[in-house]
Description:
single chain, 251 residues, D-Maltodextrin-Binding Protein, domain 2, 2 domains, five-stranded mixed sheet, 9 helices
Amino acid sequence: MKLGISPNLQTGMFATFLKSKINCEIVFMPVSKLSEAVRNRELDLALIPPLDLHNGGDFCVSGNLGIVSDGAFSNNFLYFKPGEQTVPKITLKGDLSFHDITLLRIVFRELYGIDPETEQYEGDIGKVNNLLVAGDDNYLTGRFELGMNIVEEAVECLNFPLISYILVSSVEETLEAVHRKVRELNDSLYEFGSDYISTTGVSERTLEYLSENLHHLSFELNDEIIEALKSLISTPYYFNLTEDIPEFTLV
């Protein structure tokens, strides 16, 4: 069984603990390629950001397992140019997908009533005013303390827990097989999470911060989280960012 992830601290930890229970092969891919790989049956399972369901495809979504954070753990941080009064443009750096950009637009509409233009980072940091960085660079450099935490802001704006990643498959039976073997994953998270984080190369200060905030992270879903997931997936439609609300099969 192949599990696809875009590697970062959260997905790597989830995949490591899941592999210890179902002995799957972990495949690294850019986040924007994961949905297509599941559709084409190149992957049996994948952790994808939930708003990427808007990219199309007939997906089965686990109702038991995923990654939920209320803000302490985030993959995206925005660094503003000092003294900037307006934010007409944001430069994007790292492994981003439709989910990340859409969530950013929703946050800015809610907070500032604007829809900033976005552009890809091309390597010249001197030309960048406002930079959105995706991935572990935020934690490895320690800069996350200086940036706007997009997950935290989204939770405040939307008033429900944010599901960062959902576990999907093209085959319902695949998820059912996982559910039979994996009843709980949070036990591993809270028992071994600090040990895992210590292997990622973060500083002692960052390790202490993340370890103290492990309780803000969950690898299990419940009825409240499922309702929040449905609300999140419909949000781009109500902001006129998509033309419809994607359907999916909850397993």
